[in-house]
Amino acid sequence: GGPVAAPKYTLDVAQAVIPEGPVNGVISGSNFVAETTRIDTLGTAKVLQLFQGEVTSPDREMLVYLNLKPGEKLGGQSLVVSNGMRGGIVSQVAKRWKPNPLYPPTIRSFSTGYALKLQLGQATNDAVTGKIYLALPDPEQSVIAGVFTATVHQPEPGMQPVQYTAPGATPTTPSSINSRSAMERRYGIRR
Known about the structure:
Helix content: under 10%
Number of strands: 11
Shape: globular
Largest sheet: 11 strands, mixed
Oligomer: single chain
Distance between the termini: 44 Å
């Protein structure tokens, strides 16, 4: 990638410019550079995560929840979400940050009001390239933009995702008692 170019904040997607350098910006008032970008599967959604710091406890992170149609492959999508839209392929976006470095990160989700441009290139088995511009309607004017390569993590069959559930999502329950006892035998009971 080229040099890091800071994005300009706007909630008007027509004015949003994606710089050619690596993804960077400001999240909740702190400067942000995406050290790691990955796409995980969470239920039926693919979650694009761009973060700085440790994967288990990021210092700053932006998340984009993508709802692909059944059978639709990741890669090749070009999305523009203006701040008046809701629903659609992007159900919500979120930021995570640490108001206090001693505590776990806080998450705040937005289902409307944000400006997003996301272009995904063709995906290989374990990676997809892309460009993103995302500005949030928060008081701190959080914005990130740039070019990325995301590692695509495939869900392991039978494993429940250990990540947080999105707000408003209902936790999935195993379809039968048998599958639950098998899970408990295999992984121990998580409460």
